[in-house]
Amino acid sequence: MASKRDYLHRQWEPIRNVLRFLMGHVGFRYLAKIDSVEGVEMVPEKGPGIIMFNHIAFIDGIAILSTLKRNAVPLVKTEAGAIPFWGIFPALWGAIPIRRGEFDRRALEQALAVLNSGELLMIAPEGHRSPALIEGKEGLAYIAARTKAPIIPAVIEGSEGFPSLDPRRWSQPGARIRFGKPFRFRLPKGRIPREWLRKMTDEAMYRLASLLPPVRRGVYGDLRLATTDTIEFLSP
Fold first, then answer.
1. Cα distance between residue 79 and residue 69, in whole Å
2. For 56-97, how does the pLDDT look when each residue is reduced to its tens digit (9 = 90+)?
3. Is 234 exposed, middle or buried (0-12, 13-18, 19+ CB in 10 A)?
4. Residue 216 near residue 232, CB atoms below 8 Å
5. pLDDT digits (tens, 9 = 90+) for 26-49
């Protein structure tokens, strides 16, 4: 796992490149299907960045990661390591395990180390899978505020039922991935009030909602309520 104090990107690259090869030539050829990818050019080719994504099915993070032109470090729930067979891959990749429902200082320090090393971090801010968006947690805003890293929204649909060898699932549409315009948070001077973190989080979640069809927007369904007071849009 990434060190609390330091993050050695080169240490992880060889095994990640092998795993990416397996994802592309085995995973997304025989176990899961991606039909389309839009806007991947929104992801910076170098430097730190946070990819925030909605989470509807098991393979979402893996599918999005496989479309990137560079490796990224995802935050994954600690329970993922206990999943038979699949549980070994987060550890091999060097993903950051996070304890849900509590303040996980170790995971936070690892996430900051990754970004401070100029790498990409992946976060599903809802913290749980859901067919439609639920309230985002404030960890995303806190990490982005600490590092001033740009945020790239990414949405996925059609990933339910994968991985699968069932020809009936393969005869149906596959996953569709779309990246949105990157942005950075505007920060107040001094200590960030809790209500400002909440506003940052909700405004970021509305950016996800704007990329999704109405049925997927959930609690962020009314885009008329979307504001950008804390957001500064960036050129890709």
1. 28
2. 998 999 999 999 999 999 999 877 666 766 778 888 999 999
3. middle
4. no
5. 999 899 999 999 999 999 999 999
Q: Which residue has the tokens 């299907």?
A: 33
Which residues touch 69 (CB under 8 Å, ≥6 apart)? 40, 43, 45
Confidence (pTM):
0.92
φ, ψ dihedrals at 98, nearest 5°:
-135, 135
- Of 153, 154, 159, the residue nearest 175 (C-alpha): 159
Cα Rg, the chain, nearest whole Å: 17
Residue 27 corresponds to which tokens in the numbers above? 């995973």
Cβ(73)–Cβ(174) below 8 Å:
no
User: Where do the DSSP E strands lie in the chain?
Assistant: 34-38, 49-53, 72-77, 96-98, 120-123, 151-157, 175-179, 183-185, 231-233
Superfamily of domain 9-233 in the CATH hierarchy: Glycerol-3-phosphate (1)-acyltransferase (3.40.1130.10)
Sign, CA dihedral 143-72-230-228, equals: negative
Identity of residue 125:
P
